Task: structure prediction
Amino acid sequence: MAKSDEKKRAALSGKADRAAKAAKADKAAKPSKAAKADKAGKAKAKAARKAEKRALKKEAAEQAKAGRAIRKATDRALRDLVRQTTVEATDTAARSAVRTAQQAVKRLSPRYEAPHPVSGRSVVGSWDLHMHSVFSDGSRTVDELIAEARAVGVTRIAITDHDSLARLSYVRERARELSFPVLAGVEVSARDMATGRKVHILAFGLSATKDGSDPVERLVAPTLTARTANTLWQAWVLQRQGIEFSGKHLSLDEVVATAGESTGVYKQHVMETLTHRPYTDPDYQFCYACWFKGASPANRDIPYPSAIDAVRAIREQGGVPVLAHPGQTDSWALVSDLVGAGLLGIEAYHPDHTERDRELAFELAGRYGLFVTGGSDYHGKYGAAPGVGTCFVCPEEAGAPVEGLFATEASLS
Result:
């Protein structure tokens, strides 16, 4: 009996030992599984980082490739641009050389005679080819200008209002009704971009379009708009400053009313509104200098197109460009470039020209095959010239080219 009990206890003890060993083994196995899971997680994360690095490397390579392609295309475009510019420059030089040769041939041709001053010059029978009407910054109407010309013996005139073609048809209509030869022209305000000096170009043989789409119209429209806006701003500044003349204060409404038929508003209209004095009056000159010059808060200018662009636009529209008063604006150095752009004439006679200016104008006319003109630059009481015919060109000096301009007028509307 005792042996049987001992066997049972031994069996139970062995079973317990086996259970303990199994538990111990199971316990040992659990950390191993966690470690495996942790290791697997780390491996997965590492693989993900490698994949991300590969993706980034691939993207960087693609971007580098795209950058090289862009740089290559840019370099090619730049080379093409340089090549094209070189060709254009060569073409421009060639065209300039051709023009120079043509002018040389023209000067040497028996049919071409270089302009020269004539002796015994007289206003009677002369031509005044530069003046302004109420359509810009002049104080005289077209009818009044024609009447003044007849009164002093001038037989032909040109009305060259600033930066607008809008009234050319009216000028031609009145000239025909009054049976008086008139060139309806335009004075284009421009600038020498190299020196910054103002340059004025007279343009003849042009007509306005209904939509203002022709080259000269597109060129001058911004100038006229800017001038009007600037003048009104100047008037506003003077008004805010409390400017007065003989107890009269400035009114913007009166400035606009004074401008009247003008296609723009000019400083002359501001001066007329306040002073009612002519340009030559000492008080006018003193006030003008105080209000629009020097340290005056109203002293501000506007941008102008290139003089070369102006000449090109006039030629493109079929007109005839003439350099106005080069002595006044010191435009002599620009003459060669303007000739290259298509300049056809030069103003020799002008109230601001000295004898040397006139001589130089004739000299350049002969050198470049230009014709010469002249005029008073008359603005009525808004300018210095006392009247039509103050300055003029004789028919023999202007010659056939200007005769041709008057012939062309008959076909323009």
User: Anything to note?
Assistant: The mean pLDDT is 86.
